[in-house]
Amino acid sequence: MRVTSKMLEAKVDSLNALTNNSPETWKVTDKGVQGLVGNYHISQAYGGVALYQIANSGGGVHDIFNRGHMPKKELAGLIDAYMAGIQYSDK
User: Fold this and answer.
1) What pLDDT was estimated at residue 1?
2) What is the rounded CA–CA span in Å between residue 18 and residue 6?
3) I need a labelling partner for 7 at 20 to 30 A (CA). Which of 76, 80, 81, 91 fits?
4) Which domain covers residue 77, as residue numbers?
5) 43-61 burial string, b = 16+ CB within 10 Å, else e?
């Protein structure tokens, strides 16, 4: 099965909901644009994708899987496993 960007975005929306994080990555304030800490989002570069999480209000990010950009299908499987682990740890 071919994994599309739209499918990955749906998985990330589910992940943000599961972890009670904002689905929005950025917000505009009087002080400028700020990152919403905790938000998960997809980065696309070098022909691949990665799952990032906003680490601070300045917009710094953390590569969740610490593997850089990879094929969409590979990332989809990792996100599924990541969410399963979160759900299992909540029990």
Assistant:
1) 86
2) 18
3) 91
4) 5-89
5) eeeeeebbbbbbeeeeeeb
DSSP secondary structure of 19-41: TT--S-SEEEETTEEEE-TT-EE
Please report which residue ranges of 39-90 form alpha helices under DSSP H: 72-89
Domain count within the chain: 1
pTM of the model: 0.92
For the residues 57-66, what does the mean pLDDT come to?
95
Please tell me the distance from the alpha carbon of residue 23 to that of residue 7, in angstroms, as a whole number: 15
For all residues of the chain together, what is the average pLDDT?
A: 95
- Alpha-carbon span 13 to 39, nearest angstrom: 10
